[in-house]
Every structure is written in structure tokens, then in C-alpha cells.
Design brief:
- The chain is α/β, with parallel strands linked by helices and 264 residues long.
- The protein is built from five helices and 14 strands.
- A hairpin with a 5-residue loop joins strand 12 and strand 13.
- Helix 1 runs parallel beside helix 3 and helix 4 runs parallel beside helix 5.
Length: 264
């Protein structure tokens, strides 16, 4: 039987720039809280592992999928038996990516997504990903996005067409762009008839003031919960799409044969 909801913890926090150990300790406290609150799934902000402004020290701070730092994270996830979206700077050969890893309750990495749309100066340090990712799990098919991706409707639409049940977005959005993720996340949910959960961060780094405002949005575009600009850990039962308006039917009424010019 298809799931009706996913109990989801949104961990809107301020990671410590350049201190992976402190951030891992913070992560364990999130897992403890999520477990206590009955969560099944935990979503963290973009580059939570290291802080956002990590570009100049990537050689020291980046993680590999099979490295010691990642094994430590997976061991924590296994201890608490949850699904977790962990976002980190990934090293692969000579390239670096902003990567979300969906880790299962067993501590295994079930899938990874590399941020496709890089914001502002991110491309000075990071390489753009080249694939959309939907991860099938016992709790549902999870589509992964990262921050600036939400401003491009093609990403969410591609994930929906690949049968995602929910879109999870790790964010590191800053002032003056708070309104952007609020509007775009609601639009992506409504136009694709799919719930969206977006976890932003808070606090400051050099020349950056992060704006919080993490959200859970249902498949009709209704905001179920929205955080302010303080550190916030909230667990919410996110409804999957099961009672959509039959008069709307965006999915059924698409005309993809007419949209060829959009790919140019």
C-alpha cells in the first residue's frame, strides 16, 4: 500500500565553518532529537558538513564517498536507524561537487545527487553535476535538489516525471534572496503536484547572512510549516499526493510534444 505521509525532521542550523567534527557532533544531536520526535527522515542544509564558504580550503575539507569522514557519518545514521539527506563538499578525482547523499537506516548510501545549477561564485571551486536523481526507498521515491536548483523549473519537473513522491532540497540561501526560495518552492510543489521540503541554514559567514525560512509544502502548494531566522529543528508529517484536485490534473494535461523549444 502506498504511503500517505513521511514523518520528516527539518534541521535548520548554523554549521561551524571549517569544523567538520563540531558539525558532526551537532548532527548527532539532530539525530537524537529526530528519533525522540518519531521522525523517519532528516533533511539538513547545503554544505552542512563544513559550512558554506569552504571553497578556498576544499583540499582539506572535502569528503569522498568511501572516506573515513563519510563512514563516521554513516555509522551515526545506522545507530539511530533513520533516513538522512547529508550535504557535503565531495571530492571525486580532481573535481569537487556540492553533493547530497541519501543515507538509509542501515548506514548505506542509497543515492547521491551533485548540484547541477551553481550559484554566483560556486563554479570557481565546484563542478556542476550532470544527472537528476530519484532514490526509491521503502518510505517513498525521494527526489533530491540543492538550493539554486529550485529556481529552474526543469529540475523539479524532471524529478516528478521520474516518479518522485517528494522533493527534498538542501539550502544555503542568504539575504537578499529569502523571497526567492519561498516563492519557487511553493511553485515547484503546486505545478508538479508533489510535496516539497526545503531546509535552509541560518547565521553568518564572511560577507554572507543566511536567511533561514525552511519550509514544508504540500502537493497543492500550501505551506505546512515555515521557520524563522533562528536555529530550528521541527518534525512534521508531510502528506504525499493522494487527494489532488481532479479539475486541475497538471500531469495529465501536459503537452510535451509542443515543448521542444524549451530545451534550446
Amino acid at each position: 500500500m502506498k504511503r500517505l505521509t513521511i514523518q520528516t525532521t527539518i534541521a535548520q542550523l548554523e554549521p561551524v565553518l571549517g569544523d567538520a567534527e563540531a558539525n558532526r557532533d551537532m548532527f548527532e544531536r539532530v539525530l537524537q532529537r529526530a528519533k525522540m520526535d518519531g521522525a523517519e527522515l532528516v533533511l539538513l542544509p547545503e554544505l552542512f558538513a563544513t559550512g558554506y564558504s569552504v571553497g578556498p580550503v576544499l583540499d582539506e575539507q572535502a569528503m569522498t564517498l568511501d572516506g573515513e569522514a563519510m563512514r563516521a557519518v554513516c555509522a551515526l545514521v545506522r545507530e539511530y536507524g533513520l533516513y538522512v539527506v547529508w550535504n557535503f563538499p565531495e571530492r571525486n578525482g580532481t573535481s569537487y561537487y556540492i553533493t547530497s547523499a541519501l543515507i538509509g537506516p542501515s548506514g548505506d548510501v542509497l543515492g547521491t545527487y551533485r548540484k547541477m545549477h551553481l550559484f554566483d561564485g560556486e563554479n570557481e571551486y565546484f563542478t556542476s553535476g550532470d544527472a537528476f536523481v530519484v532514490v526509491d526507498t521503502p518510505i517513498g521515491a525521494i527526489g533530491l535538489m540543492i538550493c539554486y536548483d529550485v529556481e529552474f523549473p526543469e529540475v523539479a519537473r524532471s524529478l516528478m516525471l521520474n516518479d518522485a513522491d517528494m522533493l527534498l532540497i538542501s539550502n544555503a540561501n542568504m539575504h537578499p534572496y529569502a523571497r526567492h526560495h519561498e516563492l519557487y518552492a511553493q511553485a515547484r510543489a503546486m505545478e508538479n503536484e508533489i510535496p516539497v521540503v526545503i531546509c535552509n541554514r541560518v547565521g553568518r559567514e564572511p560577507n554572507l547572512h543566511f536567511c533561514g525560512g525552511s519550509m514544508a509544502i504540500d502537493a497543492k502548494g500550501n505551506v505546512l510549516v515555515q521557520a524563522g531566522e533562528q536555529e530550528t529543528i521541527v518534525t512534521i508529517d508531510v502528506p504525499l499526493a493522494h487527494d489532488l484536485d481532479p479539475a486541475v490534473q497538471y500531469r495529465m494535461n501536459r503537452k510535451p510534444c509542443r515543448y521542444g523549444g524549451l530545451t534550446n
